[in-house]
Task: structure prediction
Amino acid sequence: MCGIVGLFLKNEALEPQLGALTSAMLATMCERGPDSAGFAVYGQSLDGEAKITLQSSSPEIDFPALAKALENEIAGAVKLTQRATHAVLTCRRDELDTIRAAVRRLAPSVRVMGVGEAIEIYKEVGYPTAVSERFELKGMKGTHAIGHTRMATESAVTTLGAHPFSTGPDQCLVHNGSLSNHNNLRRSLAHDGIQLETQNDSEVAAAYLTWRMKQGLDLGQALEKSLDDLDGFFTFVVGTKNGFGVLRDPIACKPAVLAETDDYVAFGSEYRALVGLPGIDTAKVWEPEPATVYFWER
Amino acid sequence: MPAIDLSTTPLRELNQSLHALAEGNNETEWEVLNPDGRHAVAVGIDAPVSVDIRGPVGYYCGGMNKQATVTVHGSAGPGVAENMMSGKVVIKGDVSQYAGATGRGGMLVVEGNAASRCGISMKGIDIVVKGSIGHMSAFMAQTGNLVVLGDAGDALGDSIYEARLFVRGNVQSLGADCVEKEMRDEHLELLEDLLQRSGITGVKPSEFRRYGSARKLYNFNIDNADAY
Result:
């Protein structure tokens, strides 16, 4: 089944409440996906800085020691913010590749969940409200956020199988449905040098969009192309640094509700997810049409 | 008149109170407040009562309804009035996919638009949609009437059996074995009655076109034996 929520703010005044609003939305979707949960939050980006979200499956990980070791590697500052099993490293943008390589070498068991100027990604196995409390989603600020509650169908219930999937800088995708041609696509993406971490179908969809955007398309155009190349059932919600997109397959049996006011665009798998949003009673509420790309950018 | 506030009363309590209504009871008008998109609101009623729901509901509202009149003053999620037996369900807003699915009787009136698969496998229900309906509507419809004042999406009436489909606007495409049919006097009379019962005025039955089964698909044809 799976549940999706998304909130793209147009009004800056709501940015301090992004996490609180998203966490309330996510909590309504527990029944749709009790296995695992995850969310991407797009926060303030600082000029010349980049963020790397790391995750460790072993509780003994000493993130502060890792950050120190990384500082030695680049002879510069690395800021660390740890939340449970995840940690966000902030470094200079031109040192990103050096840091990534050093993480792989110094802590091979640590996984990189996402990289970018604005994105932070948190996901774990567990009941969605417990996952969002663990990472203190409520207190997070930012411009847009996408969350997912998972009921696994295509691959195992693991942290890496949870959504969102991030396969490119500041990009993320969540998915409700199942793809039937993901193995073929995975092979052709690998041919073009795109390496995937899991056997999950949704990760292939994320990587497909990354691949298309690398070819110079914007998110809206990449989504348009995916209608030709992806086979299966899907409702996707995707994020970029400045953008927020929604797409349903032509059969459109996976549910989706959109709401828009002057202050925000919101997505929910069901209307229940939108009930707590400010001004929802007078918002424009509609179901996205099948095979139609919806895309907002600031 | 009982008013049940779902922000304070559990949904199950509301439905149990409605199921417990005995014949000849005096509580014939119910009001439901703050439904907030909850699923299965006012399902399985079997009493001649009216229930007014103030706000949007989630999945399966008014499902399996018998005798009651359920009105949603808002929009409804998937499967509204699913498998309705009799009575009436009225939605003031839009409805999601498979509205009125497998309904055996009664009337479903949608004042806004309906999404895909409206009236899928309908078995005797009358469905009147003032707006438009989505793709694959009346898929495998068996009997009953579907009236659409607006347009119909792709593959209307795919694999239809004997239901009658009346569309006033544009039909994007017809599904397998669904064809346009002649509008005879008996159909105009039937349509007049359906429009009147759903409270629609200013729309003439002659503005509609009728679609139904070509009856080529559901009988076994010996000439097609090689295909199996």
Q: What stands out?
A: Chain B has two helices and eleven strands. The first helix of chain B runs from residue 11 to 19. The first strand of chain B starts at residue 3 and ends at 5. Chain B has a mean pLDDT of 96.
